[in-house]
Amino acid sequence: MVVVVILAGGMSTRFLAGDKLLYPIKGKPMIKYVIDSISRCKHITKVVAISSQSNINSVNEYVETLQDPFQIGPLGAVYIALKTFSEALIIGGDMPYIDCTCLDIILEHCKNSRNIFACMPQYDDYLEPLLSLYRRSMLDAIEYGIANGILSLQKLIKVLKIPIKTISIYNLHILKKCLTNVNSIDDIRYCDLHQILT
């Protein structure tokens, strides 16, 4: 059983129609699809979002929301999540294909890895910070990163040799689909609405 934390603090700089998380798809904000999908998952105990001050009230309409005072990307949000919860599965609010199967794969893959600080999907040498499980044991490393300007989770993990477990995306095509995110209006237009709406 795990808490899912949705990152909802981005500035949507590449999305020219306002806040992409609140952009309606078939009349429902994109973030609501993400919330509704993961709220049905049997291994999820709680769903919360982490948001910037500018849109915290809007996101809070749909899910309990914590404020991100850092605004330094996923690193700051993971820090807030782990100060609040001992373990958190971090996902993006702009990942409309997320579903219970993907969350179950991550949790199953990570369940017997008690000595690792995080469990992350990986493409070749790239570690994916989203759809990743983080544990409170990583807090000291994140504090070091914030204090020393190492704001990339991937770089921080490599510099400090943080013990993590990886999941190859190439062996699990469904994870690649779930990691698909929306950055532009065109991404919305090409979304497979049947998959999102079911």
From TrEMBL:
Residues 4-145 form the MobA-like NTP transferase domain. Keywords: Cytoplasm, GTP-binding, Magnesium, Metal-binding, Molybdenum cofactor biosynthesis, Nucleotide-binding, Nucleotidyltransferase, Transferase. SUPFAM superfamilies: Nucleotide-diphospho-sugar transferases. CDD domains: MobA. GO terms for biological process: Mo-molybdopterin cofactor biosynthetic process. One of its GO terms (molecular function) is metal ion binding. This is Molybdenum cofactor guanylyltransferase.
